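Structure (tokenized):
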């Protein structure tokens, strides 16, 4: 008897507790995870990491420019993030004479720090649980659409209402946000401080910051110095203020100490940051949909497009530059989709999702008292599955159109009658600019349309008519590009000379304008047709998650959910694990860390992706790893190995880029910048054997600042520490 009770308890707790190293936890869940963290080696007190009533390490973690994470690393507001996170800002500050992307940049003084207009850095000052407040407000709604529980604008209204305008007026730079968790079973309010005078301080050249570029993207073993440095400026009181030359460097509440002691296999590693999106409560049918529709179509269509692009790029250096960024963007998503489907194909991937679903179903339908009240939980599964089945054909059509035409053929952004006259110019130059080749676009169009018409059923009307008229994709595309105002600047200039009446007539007849607006129109129709299914799934998932909680033995929904991590939604989270390599396939093993030797092995002066700058080669040859080699560790034979990147079992996703990685003493050991492609299915289910965060070793960052940048003033500003023995 005792044995069975024990077995049941064990099963329940196994089921509701996430497995080792899985989890993007809320700060408030630190208490629950703390015993495990200590067991794994953490030497900090809980309040050192997160202290709701005082300062803690979390106060040194910032959201960088919306999509990334950064960390404060000095008493004068220096912020460290990835090179790819600072990329847009650095590009905007660059010119032909000052190409900071290509050459790097190191401000020699405060006065040389360059205002990065538009960049914002956000601190999370306070987090409050407002679940009961939101739930009671939701109950008061008389005539709503039933979707307020997830609506950002509705929730924003509630946040304003709770705090009032007076509060915001007396707290400059403060913003409030209420976010739903577990699909609306919990709500947290974030009080944020947003700084907008951010200045660019330093970055390595792209040959270091983006070394390996697209070929190495999503890959380990990796050798990228993916970092850049900014500084937060504030008014004299330390409050956020618009750019002014009178602003001063921020004196932050907290900043990270930086460990020079290094990491090795097995070292404890913890990350805080702002992961963007995951879907780990997906039902098996949703995972199949992701695999068979979304990913599969993306892989097929982007594959066709990228093949054409690459052929053209390799044949012509000019095209190579023009299409580099477009190719990179396409390829980033392509590789991610391939990794996801690879992960899903691992044996047992679906089991967790299947078991959870069956558990909820079994509990909801079991014939005991109270089971009637549980009907909605079983119904939620039926609703989600039903919506997935019903929308399948439509979703396929949408993805084929989006990936196969809209995102593939640049001309689909062309002016058309569906756009406002004031938007025509913007539409035209969104694709027809110095990086546009109508020749390449036409070749891509021929390739993707040939595939599209075989796979899709509900073509845009213009395509149907065009193919009827011209007889083949080849002839239709040729006609599109031959007869339009919108494939060149000259054509557009002719269009601009027409009177308003003539322009309207031209938009109704120009084959490209007709094609583009027909594609957009069809996409809009499909989006609208799909919306009721999204709504149904969103509502049902709220019940499904409540069901998971109650079926798992939670006395209340909130209690049961508290031991599960909520899906990522760009809010502050922590994750932990250890520094460890992996075996991607039989007999292959990837180790930690990678070293400067590996950069020299990958060097290829004839490929822009693998150029090694001379200065780095010198450093390698002379082993000048910091004055007195202080950024590295001496090997047994007296030589030095310079670590570059390592990977860890921490659970991260897009948005975690730039996140601080710290050791058991809370000292910074690196910054997160990517994942391995074998691990991207971790957005649905964490794969302990395969998923790894890819991290730039802080010692490599110090080496580059010191020896490549020569920026001693920055090194002097940092709090460098050695770990206790
Ligand atoms: N894979 C990284 C992420 O998803 C992007 C790294 C940027 N580098 C690149 N070569 N595209 O954000
Ligand atoms: N490269 C991603 C980012 O920029 C990180 C990831 O997807 O793991 O956030």
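Design, position by position:
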């Amino acid at each position: 008897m005792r044995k069975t009770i024990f077995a049941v308890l064990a099963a329940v707790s196994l089921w509701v507790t996430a497995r080792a190293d899985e989890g993007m936890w809320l700060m408030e869940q630190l208490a629950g995870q703390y015993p495990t963290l200590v067991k794994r080696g953490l030497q900090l007190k809980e309040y050192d990491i997160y202290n709701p009533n005082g300062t803690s390490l979390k106060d040194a973690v910032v959201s960088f420019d919306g999509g990334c994470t950064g960390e404060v690393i000095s008493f004068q507001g220096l912020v460290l993030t990835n090179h790819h996170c600072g990329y847009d800002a650095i590009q905007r500050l660059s010119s032909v004479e000052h190409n900071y992307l290509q050459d790097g940049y190191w401000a020699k003084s405060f006065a040389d720090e360059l205002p990065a207009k538009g960049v914002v850095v956000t601190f999370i000052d306070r987090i409050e649980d407002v679940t009961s407040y939101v739930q009671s407000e939701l109950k008061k709604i008389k005539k709503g659409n039933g979707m307020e529980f997830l609506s950002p604008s509705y929730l924003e209204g509630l946040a304003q209402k709770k705090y009032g305008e007076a509060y915001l007026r007396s707290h400059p730079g403060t913003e409030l946000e209420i976010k739903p968790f577990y699909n609306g079973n919990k709500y947290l309010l974030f009080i944020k401080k947003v700084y907008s005078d951010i200045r660019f301080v330093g970055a390595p050249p792209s040959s270091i910051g983006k070394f390996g570029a697209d070929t190495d993207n999503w890959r380990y073993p990796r050798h990228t110095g993916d970092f850049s440095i900014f500084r937060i400026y504030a008014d004299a009181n330390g409050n956020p203020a618009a750019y002014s030359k009178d602003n001063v460097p921020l004196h932050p509440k907290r900043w990270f100490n930086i460990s020079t002691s290094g990491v090795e296999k097995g070292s404890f590693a913890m990350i805080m940051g702002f992961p963007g999106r995951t879907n780990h409560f997906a039902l098996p049918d949703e995972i199949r949909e992701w695999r068979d529709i979304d990913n599969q179509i993306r892989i097929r269509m982007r594959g066709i497009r990228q093949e054409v692009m690459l052929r053209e790029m390799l044949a012509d250096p000019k095209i190579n530059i023009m299409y580099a960024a477009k190719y990179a963007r396409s390829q980033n998503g392509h590789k991610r989709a391939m990794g996801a489907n690879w992960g899903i194909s691992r044996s047992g991937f679906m089991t967790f999702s299947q078991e959870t679903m069956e558990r909820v179903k079994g509990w909801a339908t079991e014939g005991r008292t109270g089971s009637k009240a549980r009907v909605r939980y079983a119904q939620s599964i039926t609703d989600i599955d039903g919506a997935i089945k019903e929308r399948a054909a439509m979703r396929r059509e949408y993805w084929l159109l989006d990936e196969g035409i809209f995102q593939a053929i640049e001309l689909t952004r062309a002016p058309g009658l569906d756009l406002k006259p004031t938007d025509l110019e913007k539409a035209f130059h969104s694709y027809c600019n110095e990086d546009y080749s109508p020749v390449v676009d036409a070749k891509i169009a021929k390739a993707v349309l040939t595939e599209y018409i075989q796979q899709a059923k509900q073509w845009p009307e213009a395509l149907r008519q065009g193919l009827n008229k011209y007889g083949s994709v080849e002839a239709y595309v040729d006609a599109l590009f031959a007869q339009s105002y919108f494939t060149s600047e000259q054509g557009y200039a002719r269009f601009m000379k027409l009177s308003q009446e003539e322009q309207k007539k031209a938009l109704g007849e120009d084959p490209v304008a007709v094609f583009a607006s027909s594609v957009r129109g069809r996409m809009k129709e499909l989006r609208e047709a799909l919306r009721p299914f999204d709504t149904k799934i969103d509502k049902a998932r709220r019940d499904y998650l409540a069901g998971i909680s109650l079926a798992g033995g939670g006395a209340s929904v909130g209690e049961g959910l508290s031991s599960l991590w909520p899906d990522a939604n760009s809010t502050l989270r922590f994750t932990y694990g250890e520094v460890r390599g992996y075996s991607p396939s039989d007999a292959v093993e990837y180790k930690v860390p990678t070293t400067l030797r590996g950069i020299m092995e990958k060097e290829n002066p004839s490929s822009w992706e693998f150029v090694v700058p001379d200065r780095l080669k010198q450093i390698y040859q002379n082993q000048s790893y910091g004055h007195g080699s202080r950024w590295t560790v001496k090997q047994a034979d007296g030589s030095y190995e310079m670590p570059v990147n390592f990977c860890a079992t921490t659970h991260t996703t897009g948005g975690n880029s730039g996140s601080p990685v710290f050791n058991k003493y809370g000292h910074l050991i690196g910054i997160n910048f990517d994942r391995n492609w074998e691990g991207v299915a971790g957005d649905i289910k964490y794969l302990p054997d395969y998923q790894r965060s890819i991290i730039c070793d802080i010692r490599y960052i110090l080496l580059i600042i010191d020896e490549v940048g020569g920026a001693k003033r920055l090194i002097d500003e940092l709090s460098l520490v050695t770990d206790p023995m």
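Reviewer-requested clarification: Residues 1-18 have pLDDT under 50 and may be disordered. The first strand starts at residue 25 and ends at 26.
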